[in-house]
User: What shape does this take?
Amino acid sequence: MHTLTYFQSLGLTLSLLVIATFLLAGTVKGVIGLGLPTVAMGLLGLAMAPAQAAALLIIPATLTNLWQLAFGGHLHGLIKRLWPMLLLIFLGTGIGTLWLGMSGGHWVVRGLGAALLLYALSGLFLSTLHVNLRHERWLGPLCGLITGVITSATGVFVIPAVPYLQALGLNRDELVQALGLSFTVSTLALAAGLLWHGALGAGELSASLLALIPAMLGMWLGQWLRQRISAVLFKRVFFIGLGALGAHLLISG
Assistant: This one.
């Protein structure tokens, strides 16, 4: 009932946009292992307030990220290594929620655009960065804090956490699991912030649960595509498209 009422309030066009967005976002995640919340926030941010878009992605993002971190065999070691960053992501999101919030104003939309553009540029040009082991003690918590504050304001939790994790020299399985761990903490912290501001009620949660269906279908499609196309080429096209979307949001607000 809550779900039906929620989508009736959105209207047919926006409801179809939500379904298509999560199908596309799930496909991207299925191919390259990340991008579901980023694509969802970027596209839905064109048509609705960031807080409303963030509420819709809570359940699809949480469940797909839990699935991602559950496999790989490196969870204990990654938690031991990354817990300072993860703790600061959660605290940073809480601080940002109290300090900034996701008010839905023009500056939040532009902030979302800036976050997407930075993420796209880092994905295109900063893939060869390397973090020295002796710098992890202070750089990890700093990246976590900044990621948390950006998450609280824009719903995007990839900057600077993803470039930082990619620079740690983790093998493929470790990196996929570390990304899932970071995204899970960020999503739960974001959900707590939205709940605090009253933006995550029964209607939003039921609609988010329904959005899980196209997201999972998209992930299955993406995993099928991953076996048939170049992941490197797809990732390059993805970052270029994401950068263009971010630039549009940044300019238009």
User: Anything to note?
Assistant: The two ends are 34 Å apart (CA to CA). The chain is about 80% helix and 0% strand. The chain has a mean pLDDT of 83.
